[in-house]
Design goal:
Number of helices of chain A: 9
Number of strands of chain A: 0
Helix content of chain A: over 70%
Order of helices and strands of chain A: HHHHHHHHH
Distance between the termini of chain A: 68 Å
Strand content of chain A: under 5%
Radius of gyration of chain A: 18 Å
Oligomer: homotetramer
Largest interface: C-D, 31 and 31 residues
Number of domains of chain A: 2
Chain lengths: 196, 196, 196, 196
DNA sequence: GATGAATGAGTATTCATTCAT
DNA sequence: AATGAATGAATACTCATTCAT
C-alpha cells in the first residue's frame, strides 16, 4: 500500500517550489521535477498545462496574500503606525511563504514573459509605493525598497533553508526579530526622518 | 584602412557583459553574442575556452578590485572611519563596474558550478566580514549585508541602465549620493549603535 | 429531464467528422474531440477502440453507399445512359455525405496504414473503373478520374462549408448543377468521344 | 574519401522534398530526414532555421516559376490562344517540379500557418483567375480549376513516382500528352463554349 | 457509461562545444 | 584570426493509448 492518494498535484507543487527556490525557474527542468517524483514528464502535463502554470499555481497563494495586503494598505492612512502594521503583516506572509519569497527576490530573471511574472512585479511595486511615493527623494525610495528586500534576504540568508550551510540552524524567532528590526528601521525610521 | 585588428577579444567581453547584465548568464547564448558581433560562434572559442571563461574574464577586473579592497580593509582597524572609507571605495568600484555589480547581485542563480562563482562568493563574504564579524548579532549582520546590497540595488534601480524605463535618467551624482546615504546608514549607523 | 442518453457515440461521430473534414485526420487530436464534447478522452475509448475506428465508423455510411453503388454499376451495361445514372447517384451520395467526401478527397495523406484507408481506396478504384477500364487510353482514364474528383472539389470549393469564406453562400442547387455539368462532360462526354 | 562535398544543404532539400511529397509535411519528421542523410537533427538546424524554412526553400523554385508565369499571364490578352500558351507553360513547370506539384495538390492540409502556405495559395489563386474570372458561372470556374488540378493529378497518378505501383512506367511523353489533352479541354474548351 | 491518472514514444527546437581547414 | 559544418544532450510540449475504479 504505497500511499499514492490523489495528491500528485500537490506533490508536484511542493517539489517544483523547492526546486524553483533552490535553482531558479529556468534552471529547473520538468524532467528534474518528474524524476524526483518518480513519474513521467507527461504526468506533469496531466496536472498543469505548462511549466509556467506550475509556477503560477505555486506562487498564487503568496501573491494573493501580498495583493490583499496591498489592497488593505492602500486604504489606510500613510502614517508610521500603519506602515509598521503593514510591514509586520508582510513579514508574516514572507515567513510563511519563505520559498516563494526567496524565489521572488531573485525573480527579475524571469519576470516579463510569463503572466505570473507581471502579476508579481505589480504586487511588489504596490508594496514599495505603500512605503514611499514615486516622487519621494531617491534615498527615501531606496531605503524603503531595501526594507522590503531585507525581509526576503534575512529569511533567505538566516532561515532554515539557507543556501549557506553555516547559516542554518538559527532560532526562527531570533531571525524574525532581526528581520523585523532591520526592516523597520529602513521603512519606519525613514518615516520619522521624513517627519522632521 | 581602419580595419579593427586584435580587438575582437575585447569586443566579445563588452558585448558579453552587456548581455549578461541585461538578461543573465544562462539566458544569454553564445549565438546571441556572436550574432551581435557579426562573427561566428567558433570565433568566440578562438578567444575563450568556454562560456564560463568569458564570464570570468569579464568579471575579473571587478573582482580583482574588490579583492584588493578586501585585502586592504582587512589590514585596517575596524572603526567607523575606516569602514566609511572602505564603503566609499566599494561604491566607487561598483559605480565603475556597474554592469558587473548588477550581474553580481542576481548571481546566486549561477554561483556554485563555475570557478568564477566561487571566487566572487568569497570576495563578497570578505566584504561582509569587514563590516560585521561572523558572530555579531543577527540584526547587525543583516544590516551590513543590506548595506552592500543597497549599493548594487541603488545602482541597478536608478542607474542609467535600469530595467525599469521610468527610472532611467536620474543624475548620476544624485544616485550616488542616495546610495551613499543609505549604505552608510546601514553600515556605519550600525557601527554607532553597536558603540552605544 | 431531457438528459441526452445513449447518444454520446453519435455525438462523437459528428464532432469527429466535422473536425476531420476541417483539419484532416492527423491534425485532429482526440483531446480536441473530447473537449468539444465536454467529455474525457477516456470516454472516447469506451465507445471506440482506436482513433482509426472513429474514422472508420464515420466513413462507414458513405463508403457503404459507394460500395453498393459500385456493386450495382458493375452489373449494368457500360453505356452512356447508365454511366450518367451512376454519376448522378454518386453526386447524390457525395452531396449527402459532403464532409466525408471532402475528407476523402484529401485522404491520400492517410490511406495505407489504417484498414479504412484501404477500403476506401478500393471503393474509389471501382468507381473509376466503372467509367474507364484499366486499359483505356491514358487521357480517357485521367478524364474520368477528374470527373469523380470534380464532384468532390465542386462541393468542397463552392459548398456551404467551403474553406474559402468568399465562396460560401451559393445556392445548393446551383452548385449541384455546376458539379453535374462538369462531371458529366468529363465522364460522359468522354464516352461520346470514345464512341466516335 | 567519402564524397562529402559541402552539399549537405542540397541533400537536405532533396530528401525533404522527397519525403514531403510522399508523406506530407506534417507526417515527415526532422528525425526522419536526418536519419536518411545520416546526420543529426542539429545539423539540419545548421542549414535551416526551422522546418518551415526547409519547406520554403524547397518550394521556392517552383513557386517562383509559377509566380512569374502568373505575372506574364496577367499582362496578356485573355483569349484562347494565350490561355493555351499559359497552360502549356504551366504543364512544363509542373512537369519539372513534379514533386513540388504533388505536394502542392495535397497542400490544403498545411496552408495557412506557414508563410510559404500563403504564398502558394496566392499563386494558385492567380492561376485560376487567369482562366476564369471570379464572377464567371460556377460551372466555368469549376471546369478551369479542374483543368489545373488535372495537371497535378495526371502527373501524380501516371508519373514515374506514382503512389500506385501499377501505374508507374508510362512513357513520360505519353503522360504529358494525356495531361495536355485533358487540361486543354477543360481550360480552353471552356473558352470556346463561353464564346458561343 | 464514464473518469482520473498516468505512460511511452514522439515532436520541433536550442545550446555549448569541437575540429578540420 | 577565424569559419563552416556538425554533434550530443537537453528542453518544453503533444499524442494516442491504457487501466483501475
Amino acid at each position: 500500500m504505497t500511499e499514492r492518494t490523489g495528491n500528485t498535484r500537490e506533490r508536484i507543487q511542493q517539489v517544483a517550489l523547492d526546486l524553483f527556490a533552490e535553482q531558479g525557474y529556468d534552471k529547473t527542468s520538468l524532467r528534474e521535477i518528474a524524476e524526483r517524483l518518480d513519474v513521467t514528464k507527461a504526468a506533469l502535463y496531466y496536472h498543469f498545462k505548462t511549466k509556467d502554470e506550475i509556477l503560477g499555481s505555486v506562487l498564487d497563494d503568496y501573491l494573493t496574500e501580498v495583493e490583499e495586503l496591498a489592497d488593505w494598505a492602500e486604504q489606510q492612512p500613510q502614517d508610521a503606525e500603519h506602515r509598521r502594521e503593514v510591514l509586520t503583516r508582510y513579514i508574516d506572509i514572507a515567513g510563511r511563504g519563505i520559498k516563494a519569497a526567496r524565489f521572488v527576490q531573485r525573480a527579475p530573471e524571469h519576470t516579463g514573459q510569463s503572466g505570473i511574472g507581471e502579476r508579481f512585479m505589480k504586487a511588489m511595486k504596490r508594496m514599495n509605493l505603500v512605503f514611499a511615493s514615486q516622487d519621494a527623494p531617491l534615498a527615501e525610495r531606496l531605503r524603503t525598497s531595501m526594507g522590503i528586500i531585507s525581509v526576503h534576504m534575512g529569511l533567505m540568508i538566516f532561515g532554515p533553508e539557507s543556501a549557506r550551510p553555516e547559516e542554518r540552524g538559527y532560532d526562527p524567532d531570533e531571525v524574525r526579530a532581526a528581520v523585523t528590526e532591520v526592516a523597520t528601521e529602513l521603512v519606519i525610521g525613514a518615516d520619522k526622518r521624513a517627519a522632521r
